[in-house]
Specification:
The protein has about 600 residues and is α+β, with helices and mostly antiparallel strands. It has 4 domains: about 5-95 and about 560-590, no CATH class; about 100-175, no CATH class; about 195-305 and about 440-500, Ribonuclease H-like superfamily/Ribonuclease H (Nucleotidyltransferase, domain 5, 2-Layer Sandwich); about 350-425. About 40% of the residues lie in helices and about 20% in strands. It has 23 helices and 16 strands. The chain has an 8-stranded mixed beta sheet, with helices on both faces. Helix 15 packs antiparallel against helix 16 (about 385-395).
């Protein structure tokens, strides 16, 4: 293998002579005996123009080479013909570098190493685990083997780590979780950074492999993994969705219990006495609201009512009537059932039409499944109330529509009819939701209340990134409770990096750089015209392809660091391949040069 940059050097291409040069830097110091010592550092550098500025990029440190070899390189850059490239240089090894270097650069920019804890081998390994989770998510054993195949292993001292070293680093990191999250809370939840004093919280789950972890339990699986033991974990973010804290719970923990735990964390461990907690209708229940009212400090909430409460507001000419939405999509109402609270009722007609269509499709699909059973009964091939009931039971709940059918069974007959009154009652709530909050209008008007509640979509987006899109948290293989918590913490910290990287790299990916604000907060989100143009063209004006976030990381991984040996010298020199324009821009967007080494 021969790198492009080295081929340019040895062939002496005149077009590159002005761009590459050998820089000699003389330095000195006074030793303990008082004598002045002089030495010279020699670097191979590339000069390029960035807008109106001239920049210099170090490609290789030539200080360890003999003077004759350095002179030959210098002569080659000046156009002197030397020897064929195939005889002049040998690349002894080429290792992927760009993807881990970019993630490490963002981590350094965000101060993540210092946030993790004091400098130590455990911190370097913990940082390597977080970076690896972003660059190439895999099991810990796979990651351990992967480190030696990238510059991350050598530069962070992780390539010689053992399995015990990795587990010790996980334990060290998990023991520092409270301090790490407190630091993130000061950055993103404290009043200076978060004037609205708002935090978002939601709960998710992932399945476990194995049966020995004490956190494993059977519960409602948000992954649709029936029959699997699972854990649950709650994610706390700022109003824009930056991950701040995560808590792991047994797999059968309910949303309200998780909410109680995170409120305790925010108040007692983060020291935030005034906050507004936003959570979904299953999270912030009436009992949890009563508990918030009893807390020391000023804690508000934003959540939504469940369907039975909404029906009660609509019954008997109650305060919630569909006529409120004749000219607008939201209306603020009050009810004696919710003293001291504001209720903001919203109706999304697009969502209403979608739910009506989906309901009709599911009802029709259920009737299609029931038709053969009815035909068998009518033909006498299926008889007996018990056997008929078993056959009906196998199919009627397939689409979870059994509540909308009346089923009459005798020994010789089967009749299935729709409960139209119940269907109509449910349809009246299509696209309708009611948000409740005690916050005064002077602090948050009705549209802002709706926006704050709908911002829970950011937590759901973070869960997608953590669980599937980017970080592959699931399934969980660890059996010790502290290791499971450490694994989830690593994924949360990786999600923190991904949040910032996705924003920084939006110009290179399909990410919408400037999503338009909706005409009103109830309206569905829309992509900007620029984002739609990206998706349509698939290439930028320079002809470079737009990529997914994962695709961009893969492309960055093609930027390698090569160990180069020049003819006449046994020493090797580390040298980068020439970055593509995309790779260079990716580093520019995070405000970092392309580094020869991570540190």
């Amino acid at each position: 293998m021969r790198s492009r940059a080295l081929t340019v050097i040895v062939m002496g291409m005149a077009s590159q002579a002005a761009a590459m040069h050998v820089a000699r830097i003389r330095s000195g110091y006074t030793d303990k005996a008082g004598q002045r010592r002089e030495y010279e550092s020699v670097y191979l550098r590339r000069t390029y123009r960035d807008g109106g500025r001239v920049r210099h990029e170090t490609l290789a440190n030539l200080s360890g080479l003999p003077e004759g070899v350095v002179g030959s390189i210098e002569a080659a850059l000046q156009g002197t013909a030397l020897v064929p490239a195939s005889d002049a240089v040998t690349i002894t090894r080429s290792v992927p570098h760009g993807h881990v270097a970019a993630v490490h650069a963002m981590a350094a920019k965000l101060g993540l190493p210092a946030l993790l804890g004091p400098a130590s081998r455990e911190r370097d390994l913990a940082l390597a685990l977080v970076i690896s989770r972003v660059a190439a998510p895999a099991s810990k054993l796979s990651t351990l083997a992967w480190w030696s195949d990238t510059t991350l292993g050598a530069d962070l001292g992780a390539d010689a780590a053992s399995t015990d070293d990795v587990y010790a680093a996980m334990d060290w990191l998990q023991a520092r979780q409270d301090a790490i999250e407190a630091g993130l809370a000061r950055r993103h939840l404290a009043p200076e950074a978060n004037p609205s004093r708002m935090a978002l919280f939601d709960l998710s789950s992932s399945w476990m492999e194995g049966r020995c972890c004490p956190l494993s339990a059977r519960g409602y699986s948000r992954d649709g993994k029936k029959g699997k033991l699972q854990i649950e974990y709650g994610l706390l973010t700022d109003p824009e969705g930056r991950p701040v804290a995560v808590r792991v719970f047994p797999g059968n923990t309910g949303d309200p219990a998780a909410f109680t735990e995170i409120v305790s964390v925010v108040r007692d461990k983060f020291g935030l006495e005034k906050m507004v907690m936003a959570g979904d209708r299953g999270m912030i229940t009436t009992a949890r609201i009563d508990a918030l009212k009893e807390l020391d400090g000023d804690y508000g909430w934003i959540t939504a009512l469940r369907a039975p409460a909404i029906r009660k507001l609509m019954a008997d000419d109650g305060p919630l009537q569909l006529s409120l939405f004749d000219e607008q999509d939201l209306a603020e109402i009050t009810s004696p059932d919710f003293p001291g609270e504001r209720l903001v009722a919203c109706r999304n007609p697009v969502l209403a039409a979608d739910r009506a269509r989906t309901r009709e499709e599911l009802l029709a699909a259920t009737e299609k499944l029931l038709a053969p059973v009815i035909a068998r009964v009518q033909a006498g091939r299926l008889a007996g109330a018990g056997e008929i009931g078993v056959a009906v039971g196998k199919v009627i709940s397939t689409y979870k529509t059994a509540k909308h059918f009346d089923v009459t069974i005798t020994d010789t007959s089967l009749a299935v009819t729709r409960r139209q009154d119940q269907i109509d009652e449910e349809a009246a709530l299509d696209g309708l939701y009611v948000i409740r909050t005690p916050l005064p209008a002077a602090q948050l008007d009705a549209p802002a209340v709706v926006t704050a509640y709908k911002n829970l979509k950011y937590v759901e987006r973070d869960f997608r990134h953590i669980k599937a899109d980017d970080l592959d948290l699931r399934p969980v293989f660890h059996r010790l409770e502290k290791r499971v918590k450490g694994h989830v913490l690593i994924c949360m910290l990786a999600a923190y990096l991904v949040w910032h990287l996705r924003r920084a790299w939006a110009p290179l990916t399909y990410t919408d750089e400037d999503p338009p604000a909706p005409a009103n907060p109830v309206a569905p989100a829309r992509r900007s015209e620029a984002a739609q143009a990206k998706a349509s063209a698939q290439h930028d004006p320079a002809g470079r392809p737009y990529r997914s976030f994962r695709g961009l990381l893969t492309h960055l991984g093609t930027l390698t660091r090569n160990q180069v040996r020049f003819a006449g010298s046994p020493a090797t020199v580390p040298m980068l391949t020439e970055p593509t324009s995309e790779q260079r821009q990716a580093f520019d967007l995070i405000g970092a040069p392309v580094p020869l080494a991570l540190k």
